[in-house]
TrEMBL record:
SUPFAM superfamilies: ClpP/crotonase. Acetyl-CoA carboxylase is a heterohexamer composed of biotin carboxyl carrier protein, biotin carboxylase and 2 subunits each of ACCase subunit alpha and ACCase plastid-coded subunit beta (accD). This is CoA carboxyltransferase N-terminal domain-containing protein. PANTHER family: ACETYL-COENZYME A CARBOXYLASE CARBOXYL TRANSFERASE SUBUNIT BETA, CHLOROPLASTIC (PTHR42995). GO terms for molecular function: acetyl-CoA carboxylase activity; transferase activity. The keyword Ribosomal protein does not apply. Keywords: Transferase. The keyword Transferase applies. GO terms for cellular component: acetyl-CoA carboxylase complex. It comes from the Eukaryota.
Length: 292
């Protein structure tokens, strides 16, 4: 949450192998982007990396294309915001892929941002480069960055951008290509329900009950969906259900209802014939995320 605005956030860690991007890093970032797309969230990725991990060879280079493809769906298909935040250093394959694909690209002052190293470029061109070459200020002057913001003001700047984006008029509703999770309850909603279910299981019995609930086999997904529907039906007055039998602590009921309602992705069928023909041709499904 950024001042009450939900966002999907990814942060790279330079302390581990120089923040290099291997197959695991690429998979985690891709899943983050797909999660943000599925949930209708704005995406922020904080980059600090030496580039693709050369120990993994071609597998690390493939992550550049995979992440870029996921971002294409997020930005150009679903019409959602992606903010790229570059810290020092951001070089190599990260700069050549998702680092420079943001709708808005922000860097910290004096951050080193580039692809190849300074000495490699000087030896290739056989000429002396400017002293401020590959710094954030240099890239801002050349038009490769949108903003250079000190870290102390970064949170406020991100909030202003997000607030402006949230209230912008004339937004175009996006579409997710065929193949992304489809249905009222996707994998993301299932994981949320499983975690909340374990918390409820241990609410009445303390740590011992919680440990036992964690050790036991998780309930089937169908049981979770059925339980949430019973809770929502009881709240709407569509049937008498003993909510206390489902949730031992009455104070957890608002959280249960919030998870049940807010995590649902509604898939909208196209009504007019022209849009129906286009949907059949492109195999896309219009979507929206329920407001909290």
């Amino acid at each position: 949450m950024l001042h009450g605005i939900p966002v999907a956030l990814g942060v790279m860690e330079f302390g581990f192998m120089g923040g290099s991007m291997g197959s695991v890093v690429g998979e985690k970032l891709t899943r983050l982007i797909e999660y943000a797309t599925q949930e209708g969230l704005a995406l922020i990725i904080v980059s600090t990396s030496g580039g693709a991990r050369m120990q993994e060879g071609i597998m690390s280079l493939m992550q550049m294309a995979k992440i870029s493809a996921a971002l294409h769906v997020h930005q150009n298909e679903a019409n959602l915001l992606y903010i790229s935040l570059l810290t020092s250093p951001t070089t190599g394959g990260v700069t050549a892929s998702f680092g420079m694909l943001g709708d808005i690209i922000i860097a910290e002052p004096q951050a080193i941002i580039g692809f190849a190293g300074r000495r490699v470029i000087e030896q290739t061109l056989n000429e002396k480069l400017p002293d401020d070459f590959q710094t954030a200020e240099y890239l801002l002057e050349k038009g490769l960055l949108d903003l250079v913001v000190p870290r102390t003001f970064l949170k406020g700047a991100l909030y202003e951008i997000m607030d402006f984006y949230r209230d912008a008029p004339y937004k175009r509703r996006g579409a997710i290509p065929f193949g992304v999770q489809r249905g009222s309850y996707g994998l993301t909603a299932e994981e949320k329900m499983r975690r909340r279910w374990r918390e409820w299981s241990g609410a009445s019995g303390g740590p011992a009950a919680l440990a036992a609930a964690g050790a036991a086999a998780p309930p089937a997904f169908g049981e979770l969906v059925s339980s949430f529907r019973r809770v929502v039906a009881a709240e709407r007055g569509e049937g008498e259900v003993d909510v206390r039998a489902l949730v031992s602590d009455d104070s957890l009921l608002p959280d249960a209802l919030a998870v049940a309602r807010d995590s649902v992705v509604e898939w909208l069928e196209v009504e007019d014939a022209a849009a129906e023909a286009e949907r059949a041709k492109d195999k896309k499904f219009l979507f929206k995320v329920k407001a909290p």
